[in-house]
Design a protein that fits this description.
single chain; about 450 residues; alpha+beta; three-stranded antiparallel β-sheet; about 25% strand
């Protein structure tokens, strides 16, 4: 492909737009109840619902800062959307949020997810009765720069930033959506507020129509009564990576050699600790009682499932049986109360890593920056990002792009150029001929503008 040298660029067409996919995406959100939910937002700023939609629309189109929200004000966008505001106005709007207002927006996001799941039944497919659904909780640190950022501090990642805790909902056949997210100070411990986060996520999943058994998953940072006790109270299974404390080490040492079941991964797994690809392993389980240091009512009888991988270069042993065992193998243990088979339980637990993909998509999108120096404004930005992510996920499912990442959706569906023409009292969007994903775009349009899907009962 060679560029022509007979080109003269002129920015002079008031009828062109570069993000035509925002029309069906925001229509889908509207049909799922977005604007009705935003009516309860009491931010001391006029037209709060319209401004929230403008921020979300900008994020859907790729904005990762307040200045980038200006991409909504070009060509014929004012003919397609009412209420588009300047970035300065939206920045003032975000800075008017308090903690309570962020909670209101967070609640609206949960309600929107339920509306989207109803409007796009495939969004949480597989969460029906007799199925299984997963609620994953994790956190990440978003590095920030400058000393004006409220709440920024050095946390476990050893970088100065703000901590974001989030919970996702997924099923074996549906990609994850975000149930809840919360901005926290940079030095906040991972498990702080884990119980409340899990409880909100489970309630959001139920409100979104998930009737299947829920498996709550987390890594070793959440190995504690707050997370596991919440799962038990909400009648959910749990699957949490165990910390290698003396009780866990003793239980692993007591596993009989004949109890190990060899497993072969369909695809090799990269072992970060040893920096190598692992293609096979062995699993075993033993009965275990967790948290015996707490009061008796909080002791948790469960299964301790252990996966071991043989070291390529065994470590030096102290000569004891336990020392020899841990010098020869690397062990990964987790506790669970599920009734899944041994190999499936291990597989389902390892799938917890999918939440890292959600975090990566957010950091590749609106959370590339936390754009304000004010903590509450950044918390509001995170809440807007959650709403935008879920709209994008629902749009991808409606467009038959079920596993498309957010960046892929922007390329194929959202950031599509179009020319606006008028005929009678209607506007016509002229989209590119031979667009490779035209069928997907039209599928999204049909879902967004058509009647609600009929669900068999």
């Amino acid at each position: 492909m060679q560029p022509s040298h007979r080109i003269r660029p002129v920015f002079d067409d008031p009828n062109l737009v570069s993000t035509a996919g925002l029309v069906p995406a925001l229509r889908l959100a509207e049909s799922a109840g977005l604007y009705d939910l935003l009516d309860g937002l009491s931010v001391p700023s006029p037209n709060a619902a319209a401004k929230t939609a403008a921020v979300v629309g900008g994020m859907l189109a790729g904005a990762d800062s307040i200045d980038d929200l200006d991409l909504l004000r070009h060509g014929g966008m004012n003919r397609l959307f009412a209420g588009v505001r300047a970035p300065s106005t939206l920045g003032t709007f975000l800075r008017s949020f308090t903690h309570g207002h962020v909670q209101q927006l967070d609640k609206a996001g949960g309600g929107l997810l339920a509306g989207l799941a109803d409007r796009v039944p495939g969004l949480l497919a597989g969460g029906e009765v007799d199925g299984i659904a997963f609620v994953d909780v994790d956190d990440t640190v978003r590095e920030v720069h400058g000393y004006a950022k409220q709440g920024a501090a050095f946390g476990y990642s050893k970088v100065r930033g703000l901590n974001i805790q989030l919970a996702t909902i997924s099923t074996p056949t549906a990609a994850p959506v975000i149930a809840r997210a919360r901005l926290r100070k940079g030095n906040t411990a991972s498990a702080t507020g884990a119980g409340r986060m899990l409880a909100q996520a489970i309630k959001t999943a139920r409100a979104a129509g998930v009737t299947a058994k829920i498996l709550a998953r987390a890594d070793s940072a959440y190995y504690g009564w707050a997370f596991i006790g919440t799962a038990i109270r909400h009648q959910a299974w749990f699957s949490v990576t165990a910390r290698m404390n003396p009780a866990v080490l003793k239980a692993i040492t007591g596993i009989d050699e004949d109890a190990w079941t060899p497993i072969a991964y369909p695809n090799a797994v990269f072992d970060e600790a040893e920096q190598r690809w692992v293609s096979d392993a062995e699993v075993a389980e033993v009965p275990f009682v967790a948290f015996t240091g707490r009061r008796k009512a909080e002791h948790v009888p469960c299964r301790l499932v252990v996966r071991r991988v043989k070291r390529l270069q065994p470590l030096a042993s102290d000569g004891s049986e336990q020392g020899e065992l841990f010098a020869t193998y690397r062990h990964h243990a987790f506790i669970t109360n599920s009734t899944l088979g041994l190999v499936e339980a291990d597989q389902r637990h390892r799938d917890h890593a999918l939440i890292e993909q959600v975090i990566a998509e957010l950091k590749d999108g609106p959370l590339a920056h936390l754009p304000s120096g004010k903590y509450a404004a950044n918390a509001a930005w995170v809440a807007h990002a959650v709403i935008a992510f879920n709209i994008a996920r629902a749009a991808a499912v409606a467009a038959d792009q079920h596993r498309a990442r957010w960046a892929t959706l922007r390329t194929r569906i959202i950031n599509v150029p179009a020319r606006i023409a008028s005929t009678g009292r209607r506007m016509v969007l002229h989209l590119p001929t031979h667009w490779p994903w035209a069928n997907s775009w039209e599928s999204l349009w049909s879902t967004a503008t058509g009647p609600p899907a009929i669900v068999a009962t």
